[in-house]
Amino acid sequence: MSDNVRYIYISYTIVVMSVPKNHHIISKVHIKNFFNNREGKIYVYDKFQKNIFFKSTLKSLFSEEYSNSRFSDGTIDHETLERELNDFFEKDFAKNVSIVQHFISNKKQNEEIINALLYFVKYGIIAEMRTPKHKKEVDEAVFGTLKGLSEMFAPELKADFEKSIEFQNHVKYSNLTSYLEIAAGVLEKMGDLRYEILVADQFNYFFIPDFGAATQRDKINEYFNPDIKEIAYVGLALTIKIYVNFYSTKLYKKRSIPSSSITYCDFNAVEYYNRLNLRYSQSKVASENEEYLKDFVERNSAIA
């Protein structure tokens, strides 16, 4: 071998990135706003276990394995819904929180703040739809009744139905939805909105519940069936200090439409929303402040 020739051997390691299968029911970027960075903890109250505990990581809080996985064309897909959530409901979450915080300080409404608030309306619209409880109810409503009747189906129809429920052998939920399409559709039906930004003082803290955001339905559009109710209200705690309510102006058919507002809250107002969120929670609420959470539970022992 010539001394002038050198052979350089480079070893390559192929790294196969595993796809995360633990999916957050509430977006991690949202939960972070309730994490105590100084203590490295977030405090959680479980109303059924009647105990307060902490987590030093957000990895397993308000999350479930395979929650957003779907079965399609013979393949388990862990990525599609996760990617949609990240692209349209999570990637710009922190940026839009900062925009709202800046708006609270300067009170100057512009297109940027309107877009930020619309971002959170859409996030809130789909929040509870991401919970295991809601997903189970949807699948039961869609497939449960038909399953009991499937024995009476014609062979071809029965085969199609059995194919439609094959997902149950592979993943937890059908997850046939598109959160982006749902959010856009609901927002359109809500029509014009009014917002109410609530700001807690230094001594009070909003909690984040395990359903992410509250919604309320009402008869806001006219249909042949007069009993149809649609989402007319969305409310959520963005941070420990900011809670935002959104109302469809269609709620005010016989009343004057209120103006949007920023309101600085006292103890009673913060307590009111924390009580509602605990009462409506599936089992848990979380807080940055351990002492505040403990005192709240003691004050509200009748519902806690």
Q: Looking across the biggest beta sheet, what order are the strands in? A: 9-10-11-7-12
**Total count of strands:** 13
Q: What's the total helix number?
A: 9
User: What is the total number of structural domains?
Assistant: 1
Any idea what the shape is? globular
Poorly predicted regions are 5-16
How does this structure look, described?
The protein has 304 residues and is an alpha+beta fold. It has one domain (22-300). It is built from nine helices and 13 strands. The chain has helices at residues 28-31, 80-90, 93-106, 111-127, 132-149, 155-164, 179-190, 267-280, 290-299, and strands at 22-24, 42-46, 51-55, 63-65, 70-72, 75-77, 193-200, 208-209, 214-218, 230-237, 242-248, 261-265, 284-287. It has a five-stranded mixed β-sheet. Strands 3-2-13-8 form a four-stranded antiparallel β-sheet, covered by helices on one side. Helix 3 packs across helix 4 and helix 4 crosses helix 7. It is globular, with a radius of gyration of 23 Å. Residues 5-16 have low confidence and may be disordered.
Short description:
With 304 residues, the chain is an alpha+beta fold. The chain contains 9 helices and 13 strands.
